[in-house]
Amino acid sequence: MGHPKVLAIDCGTQSVRCLLIDPETGAHEVVASEKLALKVKGPQQIEIDPLELVASTVRVLRAAAARCEEPPLCIGITNMRESAVAWSRETGLPVHDGIMWMSQQSQNIVARWDDEGLAPLIRERTGLTNHTFFFGSKVAWLLNERPDLAAMAAAGKLAVGTIDSWLLYSLSAGAVHATDVSNASRYQLLNLKSLDWDEDLSTALGIPHAALPEIRGTSAQFGFTDAGLTGVRIPITGMIGDQQASLLGHGCERTGETKATFGTSCVVSTNLGAAPSTAEGLVTSVAWSAPGTEAVYEMEGSAFHCGYTMSWLSRVLSIPAESEAPPARSELPADQRVYLVPSFTELGAPGWPKGSGAILSGLVMDSGPPDIIRAGIESMAFEAYDLVQAMPDLASTAALSVDGGGAGNNYLCQLLADLAQKTIVRPPSRELTALGAACVALRTLGKDLPAGTAAVGQPDYFHPSEQQSYALDGFRHWKELIIRNLY
Questions:
Q1: pLDDT value at residue 467
Q2: The pTM is what?
């Protein structure tokens, strides 16, 4: 007989997966995965069916539980953040499709809050900015568009939450409406000092406190799955936002340690320790909190569609999504190269330019797919470097850890090493986000994964080469394109 395993649900933008993790050895594998279908209702309105999301999650969870010789020890949930779901407390059913994190239909709400002078208050209290990216403006938009839902919220009959909260509610058959503090810190409503909902902001933003979930630590007893849904009753003991989970999975538990994740977006995060701070163009959130310990904070920047770039290139040029750039580096001067700015809906941090629409620049008569592939991969490295440059106090760190699908590209990693003049470390495990979820779940039980779980095997190292001038010249030209076209 073996020993009980940990299940990690990893609900991302494009898929939901369940991993089986051995808490004794750290061995882990993806047991089941399902793609998620997004509803593109317009150029700025991207949503998801909450019931389909739950159905997919239940299927992958049941498949993983069926692989266990004994009932699973616990479940950790990690999820795409900021996406908003609203449902009836009376029926337990969604009242609207879930609004995805990249959706921008709340621009009118953001503009109104700017006019009302709320942006400084949001920044001061929450560490976030007044932007469509975050949860609060999405819910405010929904309540503004649907007076019937606003009335339900005021009467305490409406529940709202991020994806973690909706999954917890659904998996527990409606028993628990809660979120964890890492996801709560993306609501535009969490006071970073008190780690509770800010009453002033709740009133100012028009989101009734009664609609919000209870806040718990990332490591906490969240309840149990309903055996009728999942086949067996399993304790849910950890929930954490995907980027915070990745930071933990990388082992960035000391102040100043930093990682870059190349997922659908590129997110660079650094551990701030027990004291939150701010930097221009970046946001501050709660990283995690374990029982009996102080909360740990993180600073991060997110460049939208960074990883989506390769999916787009794959579709448009019919190339494998994992394509490397052509091995030979161009000797052309910066102003004669092909460049891609992947602002498909919006570029994101650190500059937050308002313009949208991707830019493909520099095509000439003999340009071909290799030039466009190189431009796409280089844009991903440029976005990551832009975020690294905006991070305070990173000059003294010698290495930067990377993960996500895009990090498997050697050309990208080498270019980032040349740009940042830092060693890029790529851990052998590609499941760092799920490992972070397993960590917070186990810590509730007084356990932890073995040290170095993510580094089992041989990491890849990319050291700065003599190509820094090539890299920096390209980056400067790429930035000029953004300034000329998106501001």
A1: 84
A2: 0.90
